[in-house]
């Protein structure tokens, strides 16, 4: 809680979230509990935006590195189903995180909600969780293939593949933490 | 809610959970909301036990099928790192789900809590989530290898591998849903 004061930039307008009025204060009640809850919710909102922004960056890198990984002969990514899978999931993850970042930035700047809060919490949580599973699945499927290729030859093709896999794993880590935050938000929605 | 009445076996003693007294009623308040909350929590407790039991069954099957997958020559699972990974995660998942099922059955039968409620909710959620990620990762890594082997030869070795992979995926599905339930429980803990 205390590091919030150091980070709070003055241009972000902290609003009372619409859920706070009907949601229960789980602290020891009173004004202090409600204030702590608002601070936590504001921190979580900005934290999830930052995490999704980083995930967007990493998935973009992963899919661009993999898509440009064509060096002739056997060193073309599209000869290997694992790499095609990694590319597909990289694109999907970029689209999803891009859409989420766009929506969150717009909500922060205009103050209007594009989706109903309950619907948004569901989309957030299931989206994060499913994309996280897909990312870890595609990265894991591409690792053994790359290992085996690198035993034979260590060149720009295998290095680029390894880079794309690492980027996917970083994007997975960000989305896994983001799914935690979204899961907490979903559970504290009233009338779930 | 209505299917609870059909399933409720008389021997399971429904207790008021210790969290319910201090946790907020998220319904429209009053006795009805609290009763609905108790019913939901009881349903969730039994649902998570059932899901972990099924996950235990599937991970046991997966690791037994894979461990007995030795048919001489190149048809030995331990020549392939993907299959060794699948086996290791199968064993880990069996141990984890076995321990959880043991704990939950003991809590249901004796009524005593082995862990503090908050600690138990954390262990449940992070355990389920991490094992689910590991299971999907190991299954995904083993799929392309098996695909490639089956293009050359379709025999008892590749069939057993495919069976073990499927069992891992089923165990993953159960644990993913169980992680959802544990996440909800964790979020409704007071003083989180």
Can you offer a commentary on this structure?
2 copies of one chain form a homodimer. Chain A contains 5 helices and no strands. The first copy, chain A, is mostly helical and 192 residues long. Residues 1-27 of chain A have low confidence and may be disordered. The two termini of chain A are 27 Å apart. Chain A binds chain B through residues 23-24, 26-27, 81-82, 129, 132-133, 136-141, 143-145, 147, 176, 180, 183-184, 186-188, 190-192, and chain B through 23-28, 81-82, 129, 132-133, 136-141, 143-145, 147, 176, 180, 183-184, 186-188, 190-192.
Properties at a glance:
homodimer, 192 residues
Calculate the mean pLDDT score of chain A and round it. Answer: 81
Strand content of chain A: under 5%
Largest sheet of chain A: none
Radius of gyration of chain A: 20 Å
Give the low-confidence spans of chain A.
1-27
The structure class of chain A reads mainly alpha
Distance between the termini of chain A: 27 Å
Largest interface summary: A-B, 29 and 31 residues
The global form of chain A is elongated
Strand tally of chain A? 0
Helix content of chain A: over 70%
Number of helices of chain A: 5
Q: Give the topology string of chain A: H per helix, E per strand.
A: HHHHH
Summarize the structure.
Chains A, B: The chain crosses the membrane at residues 49-68, 83-102, 123-143, 163-184. Chain A is 74% helix and 0% strand.
Reconstruct the topology from this structure.
Two copies of one chain form a homodimer.
Chain A: H1 2-7, H2 30-67, H3 81-110, H4 117-152, H5 156-187
Helix pairs in contact in A: 2-3, 2-5, 3-4, 4-5
Subcellular location (chains A, B): Cell membrane
GO cellular component, one term (chains A, B): plasma membrane
Membrane topology (chains A, B): Multi-pass membrane protein
